[in-house]
Amino acid sequence: MSRPSLLDASAARASCLDLWREENDRLVRRAKLRRQLLTQDVLEGLRGLLRSLQGLPAAVPALPLELAVTCNVIILRVSLSRVFPEDQAQGIRQALERVLETQEQLGPRLEQGLRELWDSVLRASALLPALLPALHLLAGLQAALWLSTDRLGDLASMLQTLNGSQSRASEDLLLLLKAWSPPAVESDAPLILQDAQGLKDVLLTASAFRQGLQELITGRLPEALSNLQEAASSLCSRSVLAQVYTALGNCLRKMGNPQRALLYLIAALKEGSPLGPPLLEASRLYQQLGDTTAELESLELLAEALSVTHSSEAPQILIEVELLLPRPDPASPLHCGTQSHVKHLLASRCLQTGRAEDAAEHYLDLLALLFDGSEPRLSPPLCPPGPCMPELFLEAAVALITASRAQDALTVCEELLSRTSFLLPKMHRLWEDVRKGTRELPHCPLWVSAAHLLQGQAWVQLRAQKEAISEFSRCLELLFRAMPEDKDQASNCEQGCRLDAALQHLRSAALISRGLEWAASGQDSKALQDFFLSVQMCPGHRDASFHLLQTLKKLNRKDEASAVWRRLKAQTQPPQEGATWSLPLYLETYLSWIHPPNCETLLEEFQTSLAEPCDVL
Amino acid sequence: MAGTEPRVHYLAGFSCPLGGLAAGKPRVLCHEEEVFLSTGSEFVYVYDQEGGLLTAVYQFPDQVWHLQLLALRRALYVLCARRGIYCLSLESRTRGSSSQTSEDKDSEISSPVITVDPEACVLPHTTLCAFTVHDDVLVALVQSPAQWKMQLFERPCPGEDCWPGGLVGEVELSATMPPVGAPGKLTAPCFLPVLCCVSPPGSRVPRGHPQGCGGFMLEEALFGLLFGADATLLESPVILCGLPDGQLCCVVLKALVTSRSAPGDPKALVKILHHLEEPVVFIGALKTEPQAEEAVESMLPCEDVYSDCLVALGHHGRALAIKASWNKSGSLVPELREYLLPGPVLCAACSGGSRLYHSTPSDLCVVDLALGGTPLNLEQPQPDGAPGGLPPLLCPASLSICSVLTLSVLSRTPAGGTELLALSAKGRLMTCRLDLNSEMPGPTKMTTENAGQKIKELLSGIGDVSERVSFLKKAVDQRNKALTSLNEAMNVSCALLSSREGAPPISCTITTAWSRLQLQDVLMATCLLENNSDFSLDQGWTLCIQVLTSSSALDLDSAGSAVTYTIPVDRLSPGSQREVTLPLGPSESGVLDLPVTMSCTLFYSLKEVVGRALAPSDPLEDPFLEEQPLDLLPEQEGICLPLSRHTVDMLQCLRFPNLAPPRAHIPCPLGPAADLVDTFLETCRPPGSESAGPEALRAKYLPPSTASIRVSAELLRAALEDSHSGVSLCSATLQWLLAENAAVDIVRAQALSSVQGVAPDGTDVHLIIHEVAMNDLCLAGPIQAVEIQVESSSLADMCRAHHAIVGRMQTMVMEQAARGSSPPDLRVQYLRQIHANHEALLREVQSLRDRLCTEDEAGSCATAQRLLQVYKQLRSPSLVLL
């Protein structure tokens, strides 16, 4: 009585299985059309199918299809979201538990980790040859997941079990991956989006590349080189290859092989698509070689390359190498910010290398880019190592003054002032709450006074002494208002230190500038007062002492001059140089302007003039 | 004059589910004369205020969570749950982005329903929870399993199928709490995050952003303070984001642009402004400086107004206001102040001025954040035009409009009032006209002319209040009823539990009888629930009868099945009774696994009675309660009182067709699934002739199985003393055995001592009772005993009957033992021998059963045979019950 009904049921299930398989195949074919709306629907369809399959008790005949559908769902989800979602492991775990269910081994395994689960499944799967192709694909997906989450120990152990025990000795991931040979898919198997062999190639490239990058960042260069070369020699897309070549270039540059590095970078450029990283790397290389023209050229090219918006095409419905690579952070050699980052880099390099006209042009370009609201693709170079917006304005103004475009510099400073001055304190002492405040606000007085300083310098260039002196005075007024109250607090954080150093130098620069103006207009006593104040403000600052010395000499006040001279002689060269490293670029450039042109000759001259009366005496 | 018009004007009603609309997701927008409205369902309605009719209804594939209108571009962006963002071009509405039109079942919607084409989905995304469109970019908040992600897209236009290629920036928000939902499965959040876009002053923002569309401008001091010099210098809009965990953070829009490969660094990009510690439901901005008030009033709200105060509102009424002010040392600092407003807040809106409207289930309130708005601070001196501080406390003024789910400030009327567009929980769209002079509390002068107007307003306010009153009244009624019911339940429970001795005040007695349903005889159990207590069993009480069949003897492994019937006791007043009849079997296959145990319990469902009262009668009271409905109630969610337990055994189920009085001749009981032909032959058979059915054949060739039990006559006499008077002991014993059988009367009448019955499956069962003398048991001489013999052609039925008899004997012996009757002197030696025999047999049974489990088929057959023999031996009457 009961036998025929059982037969019926199994017949029905078989036909049902066929139906489900057809549904799977149909959905997979649809997914390959690669339209997002469709793909979403396909994903929903596959999930529904999986739910139906999992509604039945696990049985060996239905499992290959179920595993195939699970794999399809995972592949589709990953390629849709372009990351490995955290809950992917859940899907894999469920599939494994279903496999164990058929073996009636699913007792106390619920608490097991994925790694142990894989162990028992792979041991059990020896009894189930029909499941092997699907299980290998699932293992490939698990490997991708573990690779992207850096769980290499688990990955290696799973691969060892997968390969059988003969390679147990080896712990090397690459060797293990190479030894893995997924069984061929039978022709009548349900369609899958990506087969295990393809996944293996992707995994091989990705793991070699990942390891190489990591070693590159941690500075183990020879290992990095071999891993990267391994990645370059394996199967991968052109864009990945370009990245690998760039990393190789970076590695070789650090190893001191600039010529070989250059060859790799050229190869990377030939591969096309992401042009940014190799160009940036090339500019670093040229900078290291001291070839400024080539360096700036490659930066210009880079800025141009980044300005082209390459249309993003629909991604493949596949697990690709790109998905398994770590997100490029600023430390990575593959990171090349946005167009505005590069523009700023270019402009500041021009400024540093003395190409003032170019620097000015680039700064103006950058400001125009940032303020043209129509382009949403640009972001300001706001990352903490880079300057913030007000500093960008100040750098632009400095570049303009250097390029003798004082009027433009005045405009830029005016703009900055109009947009920040309302944030200035109304009365004295903003200082103490400033120290623990936000990033911008403590700097605000600094920026505003620097803007006044630059405006003064611009007036100097325009030969408008009165305006220049009044700007310098306003700058000084602001600076002395923002006097640090207690020094203990000042030294407790690095940012505070930098701020203090910048403030000190700014004060002395403003005093020197005003003094120079007084001196130029013949009011030497006022000039002397400013230089003297400047020396007092910033005793380590040799420039102020030089100017003081010069003025004293001019006024023929020999005793004081010789005292200054002796102090200058006693001061050994370096401390000032050491302090400047942390100064912002605009301030550094400004300080170079007010640096007395011929210090050494002045010193020697003075020594001789000092020696003569000694001889006389 | 405005005062002559009614204050609240109902425009239209929209379908709403039972219990009202849920808060949080409905939206209402107004552009010129058109009102765009979503109620949280999958429809978006377009209502024409001028014509007073619906002009279009769009149907989306899932719930609509958010609307935003780009008036200049005539585009409506719609966030559809689990689908993504759709863009409807309002220009082409008449041409139709519609693929098909269909008549909606909802009668109140007269205009055709336009099913939105899937092609209109411009940003498909399954976990998108909020968005805002600004200029040419679209900022979306996406829920990922662990945190929120803010994504920046180029604004998609209708008809574009855009891959995430349009993604130009991304940053993760460091939400402390992962969004709700089990790991691995995203569920729809009950609180949506709030996004809004803050523009710096003077930026070239396209005009015509209606209020509430997630955009406003802040004056430069506050903007610079909150968002820093970079945002100020860049003139970049800033996205403010209020998360369900209470975090209020901001992201500078221009800085959010990152390359696709690298999401932005949250530390550099995201700045946390505040933490409200309750879900943020609203972010807005106000203009609180009084000196600009006149200027503001003359402007239309869509005109650019630089707000100087940022406000954020939490679900439970915590409000945050931030304003720039000078501190003592003269530096500009943001002044943060938290207030507590009445909650839960359903929605809120800011007028162009300093007033914040917020809606709770009971009222629509308005607060004024201008320093001068509160009478206390009128005299406070303001130093040289510096921004004044925030008022130390807010006093919300009631507007007497309840349960408004979404608000939109329409415009300022020429008279200086404000007009709000609101959607109530009942699905009513209305405009509320608020007069500036009368809406605020405080010392307003009452003149004769505005007295009349005031009265009119009060009268029109009554209309709104009545809706609220009905809500509250219903809730109170329900709670009272629940309390009464609970009290009764307590009384009943106490009465039942305290009366363990004696007759229970509430009892359930069970009797069984055969009856014929259709073509099959069915054993029916009748449960009689009697309420003899002083309390009535009211709503919430359920009678649960669990029917537990014993496992079939043929199948060693199968456990018995249990069926529980629950019958609501709908009001059982004191003294009344209720009868429930249940079929016990036999089932389709003709099997009735005796004995059947029935246990009756009374169950009082706390969930049904108390739960309903605790649940918000007014769905707006706390619309988000549903997810943690009644954690206060214990797991079982009720009180369970056991009433009685009854076992239905073979003796109760036997039928005696031979005993039936001739006049009420019942046709021969049918086997449950008896063959119709057999039945026919059976009836055709001439009386007296031998039956030729299989039964007869079996009876002929298979010796019937027998079992017997001996009981000492003395014991029986003692037990049956009251009933056996006048009849022989054998007959009395039979009557006692069949006491619960319907045939007992006939047995009594005919004083039978042996009887032939039919078991439920149709086999014959003989019960023969006769007296015997046991000679070698007692030293004092032979013991008079009664032997009860069971005989049946079916082994199973014989066993069941035997089991039933043994069961009765056990109870009887227990009772007698309790009475302390003394057994006569026995020959212990003999007893011991019998006992030892039986023990040996039992041991054998045990080992045989063990073997049965392990052996293969051939072996087990032999074992089973042997087992049967041993059982037979065990049943042989060598012992007597004394």
UniProtKB/TrEMBL annotation, chain A:
One of its GO terms (biological process) is response to radiation. It is found in: Nucleus. Keywords: DNA damage, DNA repair, Nucleus, Repeat, TPR repeat. GO terms for cellular component: chromatin; Fanconi anaemia nuclear complex; mitochondrion; nuclear speck. The keyword Iron-sulfur does not apply. InterPro entries: FANCG (IPR039684), TPR-like_helical_dom_sf (IPR011990), TPR_rpt (IPR019734). The keyword Cell inner membrane does not apply. Its main location: nucleus. SMART domains: TPR. PANTHER family: FANCONI ANEMIA GROUP G PROTEIN, FANCONI ANEMIA GROUP G PROTEIN FAMILY MEMBER. DNA repair protein that may operate in a postreplication repair or a cell cycle checkpoint function. May be implicated in interstrand DNA cross-link repair and in the maintenance of normal chromosome stability. Candidate tumor suppressor gene. This is FA complementation group G. It comes from Chinchilla lanigera. The gene is FANCG.
From TrEMBL, chain B:
InterPro entries: Faap100. One of its GO terms (biological process) is interstrand cross-link repair. Pfam families: FANCAA. GO terms for cellular component: chromatin; cytosol; Fanconi anaemia nuclear complex; nucleoplasm. This is FA core complex associated protein 100. It comes from Chinchilla lanigera (Long-tailed chinchilla). The gene is FAAP100.
